Amino acid sequence: MPVITYREALNQAMEEEMRRDPNVLLMGEEVGQFNGAYKVSEGLLDKFGPERVIDTPISEAGFIGAGIGASMLGVRPIMELMFWSFYSVAFDQILNNAANVRYMSGGQINCPIVIRGPANGGTNVGATHSHTPENVCANHPGVKVVVPCTAYDAKGLLKSAIRDNDPVMFMENTILYNDRMEVPEEEYLIPLGKADVKRVGKDLSIIAHGRSVIHSLKVAEILQEKYNISAEVVDLRSIRPLDEETILASVRKTHRVLLVEENKPFCGVDAQIAYIIQDKAFDDLDAPIKRVSSIDAPQIYCPPLEKEQMPNPDRILKAALALMK
Amino acid sequence: MPVVSPFVTAAINSGLSKDAKIALYRELMRIRRFEERSLRAYQAGKIGGFLHLYIGQEAVAVGCCSVMGKDDHVITAYRDHGHAMAVGMDTKALMAEVFGKVTGCSKGKGGSMHYFAPEKNYWGGHGIVGGQIPLGAGLAFGLKYLKRKGAAMAFMGDGAVNQGAVHEAFNLAALWNLPVVFVIENNRYSMGTSQSRSSAGTSLAQRAAGYSMAWDVCNGHDLYEVREKADKYLTIAREQHKPAVLEIDTYRYRGHSVADPDKTYRSKAEIEEYQKTKDPINIFQASLLAEKVLTQEIIEKIDQEARAEADLAAEFAEASPYPTVEDITKDIYWEEDNLDKKVSQGRIIFD
Ligand SMILES: Cc1ncc(C[n+]2csc(CCOP(=O)(O)OP(=O)(O)O)c2C)c(N)n1
Ligand SMILES: [Mg+2]
Prior knowledge:
The complex is a heterodimer of chains A (325) and B (351).
Chain A: E1 3-5, H1 6-20, E2 24-28, H2 44-48, E3 53-55, H3 60-72, E4 76-80, H4 91-104, E5 114-118, H5 134-138, E6 144-146, H6 151-163, E7 168-172, E8 180-182, E9 196-199, E10 204-208, H7 211-227, E11 231-235, E12 238-240, H8 244-254, E13 257-260, H9 269-281, E14 290-292, H10 303-309, H11 313-324
Parallel strand pairs in A: 2-3, 2-4, 4-5, 5-7, 6-7, 10-11, 10-13, 13-14
Antiparallel strand pairs in A: 1-8, 6-12, 9-11
Helix pairs in contact in A: 1-6, 3-4, 7-11, 8-9
Chain B: H1 11-14, H2 18-43, H3 58-66, E1 73-75, H4 81-86, H5 91-98, H6 132-145, E2 152-157, H7 164-175, E3 180-186, E4 189-190, E5 193-194, H8 195-198, E6 214-219, H9 223-240, E7 244-249, H10 268-277, H11 280-290, H12 296-319, H13 334-337
Parallel strand pairs in B: 1-2, 2-3, 3-7, 6-7
Antiparallel strand pairs in B: 4-5
Helix pairs in contact in B: 2-3, 2-11, 2-12, 3-9, 5-12, 6-7
Bound molecules: thiamine diphosphate (TPP) and magnesium ion (MG).
Residues 157-159, 187, 189-190 of chain B line the site of magnesium ion.
């Protein structure tokens, strides 16, 4: 199997889907001539031309709104946000228009649009550029939210997102763009709403999404080697739809839960997960559910402190050990 | 262009003393050397995140800020080091900020894009393209509302004019007669996109006409001209509560940020042409030599001092401590930082 980066996986997914369906196009700032601010769209302009790989001005409300409008007519735009953080400029378009138009029209209209780009902290770009809005988006019925953490998942999920007939918010991570792994050559799709047990264990369920999964896997290894604790790591992959079954199955097996996410804690995704677990698996719990999220403050610039602010292996390990006491 | 700018005789410039001219030259030099020093610090791994250098554009910030009145105010985007120095911020605190140190102007919390000094009428340093422009209109609104005699200057790049927020601010400023000068620093590119690939029409400033707002263009390589035009519109704003859009032609020599490979959208020859023929420091230096204000000796001395100041700032930054983990949750709410005056109840920071 070829080994490719997370970035290449996304690039392949877009290329394959653009070849498959002439209605799929890519639009965003610097996606064409510049080959993408993070080079995710590298080469696509050459392959598909400026009609389908469209550079936009810095007008997020305008071009995201235009993409949503076009999607109502059956165009299938992939919209790149240079950073997901800039979604707030287009908030009304995404979370009023795309999220609601189907409902308000009594089901007559749908928006087959994908809005994708990096949504992460950890690169010292400060408070305005480090938002992780999966919780905010998922709070709006009408949009779907996907957060892949490996190249394999990124490719299979992006292809599904592009084929999806609803608006899909696809959140990547700049720190993962260079991560490599084997990805099959033959075509595959990963359905939205399917979590992935990335490590099987029996003593503790660590439930995470995004880069927190990668940290959690490291911690699971340490727990095994140093403490003889067998941790299961569940990667949500998709926030909405959400794979409740896989979450609950894991909880019923291990009886202890640590939730890890990069969101700020208040109304983070894991607040909903914790609710679901206590609601549906209360009797299976041997200990209160614990969380590790980002420290509750706007994202700090200071490089060594940003590491501390975010979930990191040290913080996750500490929380896991406390939970196992 | 003649060696001495025709704008040297403009009222705002004709009264400048020899020393005042030398001081302006020194400002340009200090910014250039500070930026070069911060680039070296970035390359040495001392700085995280983005670093958007102002090299090539110095005459814009220095020219505009040098004509500010006592109660005139500045707000700008993320390419903010030049403006910060032009309003008189201390380079030690600026360098410490990009190093992420607690001695930085924002205590290491904001980084390169987020310099602030309200006591110097400097309201940042903003990372979202165009996001600062309504704030600039709001500073002007505040001045007028509080019956203070002053104006705001809101700086943006050529790419920012395509943000809706900018146009909403233009309309408000014109509709409400706000004392604000919107300054477009047109360095021809927004990241890798040239003006013609991002902006309809031929003139950015002319968009003001749609709001019946005054507009003008300016050669940003000529410090004298920048001073003349900025003073003209600041004065009108201050005296008559009339806004304006001033588009200043300039150029950045470095990539959009230090991370920009700068390979796809312009030629090396283009950059070199600007450096050779339009460098704002060279142009001002040549003028001051012709005016017999500067000598080689003074030029050399100013350069040495500017380098020494930048080095000192870097040493200060290096020696300073980082903030602590406890600091992460400070400076979020006024009320939490002023517990003696706290009236709200309930928990506000969570885990
Ligand atoms: C809303 C928003 N969209 C995109 C970006 C990413 N971005 C940062 S600077 C920039 C280019 C801006 O160019 P311009 O306004 O010409 O200013 P310059 O960098 O040339 O000073 C872009 C696209 C951002 N920071 N904010
Ligand atoms: Mg520009």
